[in-house]
Give the backbone structure.
Amino acid sequence: MNIDLLVKMANEISAYFASEPDPEQAAKDVAAHLRRYWEPRMRRQIIAYYEERRGAGLSELALRGVGLLAAAETANTPPL
Amino acid sequence: MFAIDYEDLGTPAPVEEAGPVTVEIDGKPVTVPAGTSVMRAAALAGTGVPKLCATDTLKAFGSCRMCLVEIEGRKGYPASCTTTVAPGMKIRTQSEKLAQLRRGVLDLYLSEHPLDPAGARTELRDVVETVGLTQTSYGPRPAREPMPRDESNPYFTFDPEQCIVCSRCVRACDEVQGTFALTVQGRGLQSKIAASQDDPFLESECVSCGACVEACPTTALMEKSLIRLGQPEHAVTTTCAYCGVGCSFKAEVRGDGAATEVVRMVPSRDGHANHGHACVKGRFAYGYATHADRVLKPMIRKSIRDEWREVSWDEAIGYAASELRRIQAKYGRDSVGGITSSRCTNEETFLVQKMVRAAFGNNNVDTCARVCHSPTGYGLKSTIGESAGTQAFTSVAKADVMMVVGANPTDGHPVFASQMKQRLRQGAKLIVLDPRAIGLVRSPHIAADVHLQLKPGTNVAMLNAIAHVIVTEGLTQDDYVASRCEPESYQLWKELIAAERNSPEAMEAVTGVPADFVRRAARLYAAGPNSAIYYGLGVTEHSQGSTAVMALANIAMVTGNLGREGVGVNPLRGQNNVQGSCDMGSFPHEFSAYRHVSDPVVRGTFEREWGVGLQAEPGLRISNMFEAALDGTFRGMYVQGEDFVQSDPNTHHVTRAMESLECLIVQDLFLNETAKFAHVFLPGSSFLEKDGTFTNAERRISRVRKIMPPKAGYEDWQVTMLLSAALGYPMSYRHPSEIMEEIARLTPTFAGVTYEKIDRLGSIQWPCNDAAPEGTPTMHVHQFVRGKGKFCLTEYVPTSERSTSRFPLILTTGRVLTQYNVGAQTRRTDNVIWHSEDLLEIHPHDAEVRGISDGDWVGLTSRAGETVLRAKVTERIAPGVVYTTFHFPETNANVVTTENSDWATNCPEYKVTAVEVVLVNQKDAWRKRTAEERAMPRPARRRTRDPAPA
C-alpha cells in the first residue's frame, strides 16, 4: 500500500492520543489502535518501514507506537 | 383519504393520559382515559359519529357541525370532537333531531359541492350515505367562474371545486408537517384553500409531504396515482427504504403476483417512528422501483472495455465464483472482499458478512456506513459503551433544549424534523451548530435561540469551548458524574477542557464564532433541564469525526443528559439501515453487536454456528481495499447495493482502484457508476420485492414486507446464498425469518428478536433480550452500557485541509429534501422537478469578487480534481464557505473531495475541502474535460429488454 498514506494515518492516530498525559500510555494506545483496526498487511508494512527506514516521517509518538506494535507482533500479543 | 384499512377515531388520544373515565354512549358504558373526546370515545366503542373536519392526526377543530351529539343535562348539541368526556356523562349520538341537524348541514355542503355519482370513495361520500341525504334541496348552484384545477405538483392534484374548506389540509400542514404553506383565503362562499400567496402548489412553500392529501375528506386533494390506477384492493405494512427515520407505510396495491401495482404509499398512523407522517420521498418517490432503467438480467464480461453479455443466473453466479476462487488461488486468500449496504436489510447484510468471513475465508468486509457514521460507532462505544443512539424519537417531545449539530433534519430526516418542530413550537429552545443556515434556524414559528455558524472543520474546537464554559462556570452535574462516570477520566478531561486554550475567547479565531454566542449556547444547554443532542454527518465526516462524537457524549455526561426521556445523544442516520448494517457485523474488525474478531469466545460461537474456522485479524476497510487494489494485493470484490464511485471521496483515486480489479461483482437495481467497472452484474431487488427488517436511527427494528415478487427472480439474500453455494459454502435459509433466528442466536442485543414478536409489537428497539423482552426505548437508564461512563480526551487537532491562496474557499457538502444520496432512486422519480442538478451555494460577497451571478456556470477545483456546476448565490452560507450536494453523477462532487479521513475510522472528510470557484464561460468544454478525466470507456450495453421476472 501507499506507505505515505500509512504514515499519515499513523500520525493522525498519534495526534489524537498525544493528549494522554502519560507518554507511555499514549504509545501503548497508538499501538493498540493499530493492532485492533489495521489489517495485517498494513501493520506489516508500517513495521517494515519503521525497521528499514527508521520510520522517517512518523511523529515521535507514532514512532514509539509503531515500535510497541512491532514488539507486540513479534510476541504475538492479542489486541484486546 | 387515509389508508383503506384504517379506522379513523376522529381526534387524537389525550397527550397526558389520566385515570379512566366511564361514560354512557347510546346506552352502552364506555371507559376511556380522561381527556378523550366524546367522538373518540364513541369510535372506540364502535359507534361512528359523522364527521368532516375531524381526523385523529389533528387537534379537534369543531367547524363542520356534523358530529353534534346530545348530552344529558346539557343545553344544545355540542360538537363531539371538541367535547371531552366527564364521569357519568350520558351521550346520545343518534336521534331524530340530530339526524335533522346533520341533514341540514350536509344539505348546505352539497349545495356547493354536489357529489359525482361515479366519483371516488371519499369520507364525504361515506357521510352522505350515513346521513342518508342523496341530493341537495337548494337546487342548481348559481353560475360562477369555475376554479381551475391545480395540476402543478407531480404527485397530487388540487381541485378547488371539490373542496369543502374543512381546513383539514391547512391544519395538517401546520400541526403535522409544520410548514404552514396553506391557508384559507377569502370569506364565506368566497373562501378557498390557497398555497402560499395563492400560488400553484409547485411554486409555493409546500414541501409535498402529502399530509394535506391524506387529510382531505373529499376529492379536492388526491394522489395522481390514485386517479390513474383506481382504488387499491389491499394494503401491506412495510418500512420506507429512504432515510434513517424508518417510517412505517401501508403500501396500497392492486393486482397480485407479477401484476401487482402500488397505487400509493400511506404512512401508518400506528407507525412507531413516524406516527402517520411521511415526506415527499417516502410517500411519493417509489417509482424508481419500476423504472425502465432497472436491469433485470444478470450480465458478465471479461473486461470492463467489453460489452455486457446477458446470461442466466447460473452462468453469472458460476462465473463470479470461479473468478473469486481463481483470484484467491493466484493472489492469496485475502485478495478478495465484500461490501454490505445500508440500503439492504439486516438479513442481507448479515449474509454478506457471513459469506465473506466463512466462504471467502477472511474479514475483508466493510459497509457504506464506513463513509457516514463509523465515527458514531467508535465515539459512542468509547464513551458510553454502545454504538447507537440513546433515545426513541418520541423522546424529543420531552426535550427542553435541542442542540442540533451538523445535521439538517428538515431536508435529511424530514419526518423527525416535524416532530422536532412540534416541540419547538411548544417552547423548547434550539441551538444549531452548522456552517450553513439550515432550515431549522428560521422557519414559520421557529427560530434558533443560538446559531453557531462555525467554520467547517472546527466542530471539536467549538464543542470543547462549550464544555469549557460548562466546566469553568460550574454548570456540571457533579452528583450524576460522581455516581455514573469514571473519576480518573473525568479529572483528566476536566483539566484539558478547563485550559484557557479551550475557552470560547481563545477559540473564536479558530471557529469564527463570537465567544458570547458560545457562552450563551453552553449555558442554555446546561440549564436544560432536559437537553438533547441530535447530530449528523456534519459531525462525523471530518478528520476528527470520532473525537467530535466523543466530545458530544462528554458534554451530555457532564450535564447529566443521558439515561432518561428528553435527553441523549442521537445520531441521525443517513440511510434506512445504517444502524442495522453496523449492528450486523459489517465492519472488518468486528462481528455482530460490535465484538472484535480477535475475541476467542465470541469467534468460537460463530465458528460453531457456521461450521468453519474464522480469522482472528481485522480485515480491510473500504479505503484500505482501494489502496490494496492499487498495490496489487486485492483483486476481487463483491458489492451489494453500494455505488462508491459516485459516493466515495476523490473519485479519480477510486476509479483507478476499480480499474485494477480483476473481478468486480456489483449487485444493484441499476447499472450505477461503480457498475461501469464491473465484470459481473447481478440484478438487485427493491424494498417492495423482498422480506426482511431495517433498523432505524433509534435502534428500531421494523419489518420490510414483500409487496410483489422480485422482478429479476431473486431477493437479494437469495442471490448471496447462490454465490456462497457456488463458492462451496452453501446456506439453507428458506425465509429471512430464519436468518433473523440465527442473528438472534449469535447477537446478544438481538437475542429476543423474532419476526413473530415484531409482527405482534409493530417494531422493537434493541437491546431486546431476557432483561428487556419487548425492547429498550431509552438506553443507559441506570448505568452506562460500559459500566462507568468514560470521558475521552478531545484535544482539538486542526485538519490538514486548509484554505490557501490557490484554494481560498472551503467546500462542504450535504443533501436536499427531494433527492437522496447518490440519487440512484430519486433521480428516477418526478422529484427531479424540484432539484434536477447539483448547485453550488456561494455567499454574495464571494460571488461578487469572482464576477459570479446566480445561475452562472462555475468551475469548482480542489487539489483532487475539478467539476462544473451552476452557482446559487445565497446568504445561507457564510463568506469563505461554499456548499453543494452530491446527488448527480453529471456533477460528481466527489471528484473534488480528498482522501483525508477520520483518524479512528477512516470515514472520509467530505465536509472540508479547500477549493477555488471560477466563472466558466466554456461550460461544455469544462464538462467534457472533467467527464473525460473520470470516465471509462462506456460501450453500449447489448441486451434485450425483458421486463418480466426471470
